[in-house]
Amino acid sequence: MSTLTTPNLSTREFIPLLAFMTSLLAMSIDAVLPALPMIGQDLQVSGANHPQLVISTLFLGLGVAQLFFGPLSDSIGRKPTIYIGYVIFLLGTLLSIFATNFEFMLLGRLLQGIGMASPRVVSQALVRDQYEGREMAKIMSFSMAVFILVPVIAPAVGQAILMVSHWRMIFVILMVMAVIAWVWFAVRQAETLPRDKRSHFSLSVIWAGIKETCGYRTALGYTVLSGFVFGAFIAYLSTAPQIFSELYGITDHFPFYFAFLASAVGVASIINGWLVMKMGTRVLTLMALLGLSSSSLLFLIYALFFNGIPPLWHSMGYFFLAFMFIGLLFGNTNAMAMEPLGHIAGIGAAVIGSLSTLMSVLIGGYIGFMFDGTLLPLLAGFAGLSCASLVMMWWIEIQPCKNQPLDALV
Asked: Which of 150, 169, 201 is the last residue of a domain?
């Protein structure tokens, strides 16, 4: 028997519902990218790099809120928790639509990130509540495939909207999508957590989960490693519009170049599913880190010969290769971080997701603000963070008893 509780809608409907709910996060990030220069101009942003905050602020809200929505859904149920998330997201979207200054825009993006943390976290619990084994893996795979596909098409959607309307219309479309997802979920999906299985919500439970998660060398180490890798990726997301427009004069065709590079992550996920069964997560992670660090260092040196602006297709080749390595790292590092946390999987996943996201926002935001009209700050960030990740993996794996709490190793 594959189902744990009988779902009120078929698997064929549950999968697209889940994918639609989680894809709204990717749309909220990537559909806005082509509009960043216009947002900065209309809202009279002073610094040339400040529009990047429209991206990183959303990740900030996402990172903070993940810690709370998981335990909250265990307390009040899955559906009420997701309703709260959509309310917060819609409030943030409305603020973004009607923002008359940059501060209100950033507040709106912060609320969007907080709101999107709910379906991102709770949707995984919905799957765990209803399915197990291979059927659970199948559903998560289909949902992840859609989540990977969205960044490929989202900038093109944003660019198409800009061709016929104002940048604020992008946020109107996001609001419509959120309403559709909310109504579809409310009408068709039943509550999957019975009242007798709910737990009491308290900040002490969250704090205990943080302490226990960080007490494991594997969990803490691979969480930090994930933060390094994702920090490099956020730095790219934040600076991509400036890189393509200012360095290479690409504006209208930006979505196509972005889609090409984003597809590298999808290619890597397919390769990873095949290789991980043959090589294991640790060997594959080590190879990906070695490939990312060596290619980044070499291309950083190469870029110096062009004053930080290598030929376009040379840069495209490097970034496609780098994103393939990053695509291999995303899933594997998270899986290894979760290895010792099977007994606290829910709060453990929330802690790992929250801490790695907050780390990546700070790191990626700093690198993004170092943008100087060349690729050098971004390439230095990729090289430095990948080398730091290799050091972190050495710290995790070279020590004995790596899956015991840190205090047991002293």
From this structure: 201
Separation of alpha carbons 104 and 149, rounded Å: 30
- pLDDT of the chain, 410 residues: tens digit per residue: 344 444 567 888 888 898 899 889 999 999 999 999 999 999 999 888 999 999 999 999 999 998 899 889 888 999 999 999 999 999 999 999 999 999 999 999 999 999 999 998 888 788 878 876 667 656 766 666 676 678 889 999 999 999 999 999 999 999 999 999 999 999 999 998 889 888 888 888 888 888 988 999 999 999 999 999 999 999 999 999 999 999 999 988 999 999 999 999 878 877 877 787 788 888 999 999 999 999 999 999 999 999 999 999 999 999 999 999 998 888 788 888 888 876 776 678 788 889 999 999 999 999 999 999 999 999 999 999 999 999 999 999 875 444 455 444 33
Decide if 182 contacts 24 (C-beta within 8 A): no
Look at the chain and report how many structural domains it folds into. Answer: 2
Q: Are residues 148 and 292 in the same domain?
A: no
The count of other CB atoms within 10 Å of the CB of residue 198 is 13
The verdict on 281 and 172 lying in the same domain is no
Q: Using CB atoms within 10 Å of the CB of residue 409, give its burial: 0 to 12 exposed, 13 to 18 middle, 19+ buried.
A: exposed
Distance (Å, whole) CA 51 – CA 242:
10
In which domain, by residue range, is 60 found?
Answer: 9-201
Q: What is the DSSP string of 146-177?
A: HHHHHHHHHHHHHHHHHHHS-THHHHHHHHHH
How many contiguous H segments (helices) and E segments (strands) does the chain have? 14, 0
C-alpha to C-alpha distance for 197 and 363, rounded to whole angstroms: 39
Asked if 38 and 161 sit in the same domain, the reply is yes
**3-class SS of residue 62:** helix
Closest CA to 64 of 362, 368, 364, 366: 362
